[in-house]
Amino acid sequence: MQVLVTGAAGFIGADTALALLRRGDRVVGIDNLNAYYDVGLKEARLKRLADHPAFRFERTDVADRAAMAELFARERFDRVVHLAAQAGVRYSLENPASYVDSNLVGFGNILEGCRHSGVKHLVFASSSSVYGANTRMPFSVHDVVDHPVSLYAATKKANELMAHAYAHLYGLPVTGLRFFTVYGPWGRPDMSYFIFTRKILAGEPIAVFNHGRHRRDFTYIDDIVAGVVGVLDRIATADPGWSGEAPDPATSSAPYRLYNIGNSRPVPLLDFIAELERALGREAVKDFRPMQPGDVEATAAETDDLKAAVGFAPQTPLADGLRNFVDWYRGFYAITD
User: Fold this and answer.
1) Which of 96, 256, 279, 337 is deepest in the core (most CB within 10 A)?
2) Phi and psi for 216 in degrees, rounded to 5?
3) DSSP class of residue 139?
4) Is the CA virtual torsion 268, 273, 279, 282 positive or negative?
5) Can you list the alpha helix ranges (DSSP code H) found in 76-181?
6) CA atoms within 13 A of residue 213's CA, in its CB half-sphere
7) Mean pLDDT throughout 230-242?
């Protein structure tokens, strides 16, 4: 099977591509290698894939309409895992145009490519951020999410709507995955656990927003990838019981599905920091601050649907996941003390 993985130099993208290669798929990976964070880290992720004869990388931008049309016409992918996006809630306050280009224009180009080339299944990244102002826990894909609190969240909600339109109009099977706080080796330097690690090792204070009252559904990268690959193999189908009189946001009369993909065990931020301190053997100097604009106090994934569909069951305890990350971090950045 030939699979396109967009965002192949990214955190989840690189590990997903590696998992597909290991099971025998042919993978074309694309990424624009932008400078949102360290390009050297992105290049290092790609080096893990380079020795696989069934992998080929192309540096290109999903927002480039002509390049995407040419790629889809040339390759004829069986399935697509679309993970390329401008990530980050806080950065969307600084550079909203990059979210419009990557997350809206880019996703439109992917949908068009899939439509015209007969792709059998598109799996795309949404986000737990779409829950926005919702406060009922755990978050359910069957609840309406019409109140985003950041532009990033709004673009991900828009992706879900765009995907449904293509499923309805053209019969394109699409599945959206709402990711919940993914962490682990090879992660993103803009995420809190990565920033905390760098600052704790440097003896610098860490900013603890919302005075430490956050709770997050931290989900280890290996568990995430297992879920992504499982969903890719389960092609979305229409729900015969779907009704327009009581519409379920997670399913449709079109071949469309939405799933939460998270650990379903929210962790208080201060407990997370304490576990990271144990893994590092260092104590953090905490600088308590108010809630940041665009942020939410808590996330918690209800994942019964994903478990029923593909047997999704996260296996990695937080302590193990953070130890694995710290070991990788020390090795990658050659930290010996």
Assistant:
1) 256
2) -130, 145
3) B
4) negative
5) 91-94, 96-99, 106-117, 151-170
6) 9
7) 97
| Rounded Cα–Cα distance for residues 241 and 225 (Å) | 30
The mean per-residue pLDDT over the stretch 45-60 comes to 96
- Residue 297 CB contacts under 8 Å (≥ 6 apart), including other chains: 210, 213, 214, 215, 291
* CB 128, CB 180: distance < 8 Å: yes
β-pairing, 55-59 with 26-31?
A: parallel
pLDDT at 215 over 80: yes
pLDDT digits (tens, 9 = 90+) for 192-211: 999 999 999 999 999 998 88
Q: How far apart are CA 105 and CA 60, in angstroms?
A: 14
Whether 322 contacts 279, CB under 8 Å: yes
Tokens read off for 293: 């604009």
Q: Which residues are catalytic?
A: 152
Q: Most distant CA pair in the chain: distance in Å?
A: 62
3-class secondary-structure state, position 179: strand
Given a contact cutoff of 8 angstroms between Cβ atoms, the answer to whether 255 and 167 are in contact is yes
SS3 content of the chain, % helix, strand, coil (to 5): 45, 15, 40
- Residue 193: the pLDDT is 95
Q: What span, in angstroms and rounded, lies between the C-alpha atoms of 60 and 123? A: 20
- Measured CA to CA in angstroms, residue 3 lies from 17, 18, 55, 66, 156 at distances of 9, 12, 10, 20, 22
CA–CA gap between residue 10 and residue 104 (Å, rounded): 18
The percent of residues in the chain predicted with pLDDT above 90, rounded, is: 88
CA atoms within 13 A on the CB side of 234: 22
Strand partners, 215: 268, 298
At 168-197, the pLDDT tens digits run 999 999 999 999 999 999 999 999 999 999
What's the rounded Cα separation, in Å, for the pair 296 and 217? 12
Question: 85-97: per-residue pLDDT in tens?
Answer: 998 877 887 889 9
The tokens describing 283, both together, are 């104590």
